[in-house]
Prior knowledge:
Blueprint: E1 3-6, H1 15-21, H2 23-26, E2 33-36, H3 60-63, H4 68-74, H5 86-99, H6 101-111, H7 113-117, H8 120-123, H9 131-134, H10 139-142, E3 145-148, E4 163-165, E5 170-173, E6 185-188, H11 195-202, E7 203-205, E8 212-215, H12 216-221, H13 224-227, H14 233-236, H15 240-249, E9 255-258, E10 265-268, H16 287-298, E11 301-306, E12 310-311, E13 317-326, E14 342-350, E15 356-360, E16 375-381, E17 387-388, E18 396-401, E19 408-416, E20 425-434, H17 438-445, E21 455-466
Parallel strand pairs: 5-6, 12-21
Antiparallel strand pairs: 1-2, 3-4, 7-8, 9-10, 11-13, 13-19, 14-15, 14-16, 14-20, 16-17, 16-18, 20-21
Helix pairs in contact: 5-6
Amino acid sequence: MTRLRRVAVAFGAGALVLLASAARFVQTGGDEDVPLGDFGLSRIATPDGLRPPADDFFVSSDCALCHPRQWAELEGSMHSVSHTDRFYRRFAELARKEAGEEVYTYCSGCHSPAGVVTGSIPALPEDRLPEIALDGVGCDVCHQVSELTGHDGPWGEPGNASLVLSPGRVKYGPFDDIERNPAHEGEQNVDLSTSEFCASCHTVIHPVNGLRIEHTYDEWRGSIYAEKGIQCQDCHMRSVEDAVRVAETLEPVVRRGTIARKGGEREIALHTFVGGNVHAGELGGGERHSRAARERLRSAARLHLELPENLEVTGSSLSFEVTVENVGAGHALPTSLTELRQMWVHVRVVDAAGTVLMQDGALDDRGHLTAPALRFGSELVDASGAVTHRPWEAVDFAWKRTVPPKGRDGETFEVELGPGIESPLSIEARLLYRIAPPHVVKEVMGPEAFTPEIVEMATASAELDLIR
């Protein structure tokens, strides 16, 4: 499926630098050779490289007739609104405006796979897209995947929609005993139960310069979860409670139920695909998915305080350590588009009279985060070295800091203790998270902007007596 073509792509400021660097990744002679698939910069494909008609796909609501449980779980999820999510839509249109149709189609390869392979995207305006294009990552996207092509692609790993979609009557599933039914035929594809399947879209590689912008799969691949055979589906196709158990035991949780309305009982998976987006409801999805995302975030990490039992004299300084432990995620914290995700620790030390002796990680009056000591996420830079939140402009990370699966990361804090301090001292640390900085949301969405919710993922507190 892989082909190399010469193409001029407008990637905004620094485009010439980006295009010139492409040769390092695709081993061709021309400076403007870019690894294109059958449908442009996206790696998505069909068996013959041709565009199937939209009628070859079922929309997810069609599947609900025989699979009501799965449809009830999927409806309102971020997968179900992957194309219509309001924040994504504004971001995608910004990419289209600044970087062109090729880049917009590249984004859509994961956000509307059927839209891309049918040619609806980018050919048709939004108000004329067929229902299957608006269906996002619906039932027929996953269950029409006949093959994964990531390891055969230009980067040697899954990513950028490295899927072969084979629309038609055959629906693919993880089992080898798919029941016959009048609606469609069934065929086994064991890839649906692997992390490589998820990585096909949850690894985002800059299509021109090869920068790994979103590398969730690689974070998992180097973890004890992968070593123990725990796949993405073992957590993200389970309830929050089951996912917590999987993280604690490093063993899968098996649930049983009915696959179809008239089918028998067998092993089942939950089709909610909940991650950390607490704005599912207001972005076009369902509030129950927002609630589950909060629960998932609150189960992902623990905070630890290490401090002396007491302080013998005043007029000295207090030193203590705050550590974040990733206890519940099979990937780094945060993950995904880390240049947008913000995770940080807010630390306060207060004496008995209420005097704030030290504070780190507080927001300013505009809700901006001002470089706390214990901050996780990343910053992308463009070809000029300027910080950017536009992935299509990115050439490198200025910095990136995350907590690996089952790993820890922390900082030491110091507080000066002068005269007049009232004992005891109260020390509080709060691990906080939001999906994006407010100023980025406002810039992208304009008058439709929302204020990103701050989720308290974990807390730790202690009191320390001063011995005079």
